[in-house]
């Protein structure tokens, strides 16, 4: 869904990517730095209950991580390794966000086990969504469908956590329930489209 915004984002990201390319920084360094920042923000702030500031830190590094593709295109340093690294680091960052939330929700101060289980479900379903696409494409099949791809899932989880940190009632529970529902639908969509291709339906 948010992929429709890519042309507009490209007009913003490209000039910044051009400036970064002139500094000599490589796309892979940007990718790893962005992931380390996201993981640090999630695993340092969230377990302490600092959901708002953790979300601010994570969001800053998520935006920073958007520039690796632009720098790669500008410098001509695109390739299989960079694509692999970027996709893998995305999974690490996503897992860190939910791990931080789960650590908070299972702590003495923020104890809410049902919500922790829901966050765990969201984390696992996100992995399944990503793996389903990767495995399908590895088999030569198309699997680019889904109501909740990575961008949507990240926005929902971060908005929920950030608003919860500001004291907005039920922000985190609502966002996790919504994310769980949309993720489940997305898994179903990907299984369906791959099944139809695989069996020739």
CATH superfamily: CDP-alcohol phosphotransferase transmembrane (TM) domain
CATH class: Mainly Alpha
Q: What order do the SSEs take from the amino end to the carboxyl end, as H and E? A: HHHHHHHH
CATH topology: Four Helix Bundle (Hemerythrin (Met), subunit A)
Radius of gyration, taken over Cα atoms and rounded to an integer in Å: 18 Å
Tell me the domain tally: 1
Low-confidence stretches: none
**What is the molecular shape?**
flat
* Protein structure class: mainly alpha
Number of strands: 0
Helical fraction: over 70%
**Termini Cα gap:** 26 Å
Any chance you could write out the topology, listing elements then pairs?
Elements: H1 6-22, H2 27-45, H3 51-65, H4 67-75, H5 80-105, H6 113-138, H7 150-165, H8 171-199
Task: Please give a handful of descriptors for the protein shown.
single chain, 201 residues, mainly alpha, Four Helix Bundle (Hemerythrin (Met), subunit A), 8 helices, flat
Tell me about this structure.
By secondary structure, the chain is an all-alpha fold. It has a single domain (2-199), classed as CDP-alcohol phosphotransferase transmembrane (TM) domain (Four Helix Bundle (Hemerythrin (Met), subunit A), Up-down Bundle). It has 8 helices and no strands. α3 (51-65) packs antiparallel against α7 (150-165). The protein is flat, with a radius of gyration of 18 Å.
Nutshell version of this structure?
With 201 residues, the chain is mostly helical. The protein is 78% helix and 0% strand. It has helices at residues 6-22, 27-45, 51-65, 67-75, 80-105, 113-138, 150-165, 171-199.
């Amino acid at each position: 869904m948010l992929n429709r915004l890519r042309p507009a984002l490209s007009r913003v990201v490209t000039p910044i990517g051009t400036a970064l390319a002139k500094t000599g920084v490589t796309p892979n360094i940007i990718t790893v730095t962005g992931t380390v920042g996201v993981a640090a923000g999630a695993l340092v702030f969230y377990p302490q209950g600092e959901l708002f500031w953790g979300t601010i830190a994570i969001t800053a590094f998520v935006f920073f991580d958007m520039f690796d593709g632009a720098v790669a295109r500008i410098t001509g340093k695109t390739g299989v390794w960079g694509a692999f690294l970027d996709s893998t680091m995305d999974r690490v960052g996503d897992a860190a966000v939910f791990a931080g939330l789960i650590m908070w929700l299972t702590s003495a101060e923020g104890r809410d086990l049902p919500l922790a289980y829901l966050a765990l479900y969201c984390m696992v379903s996100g992995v399944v969504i990503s793996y389903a696409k990767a495995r399908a494409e590895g088999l030569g099949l198309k699997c680019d469908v889904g109501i909740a791809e990575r961008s949507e899932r990240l926005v929902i989880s971060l908005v929920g956590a950030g608003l919860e940190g500001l004291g907005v009632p039920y922000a985190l529970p609502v966002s996790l329930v919504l994310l769980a529902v949309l993720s489940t639908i997305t898994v179903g969509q990907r299984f369906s489209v791959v099944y139809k291709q695989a069996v020739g339906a």
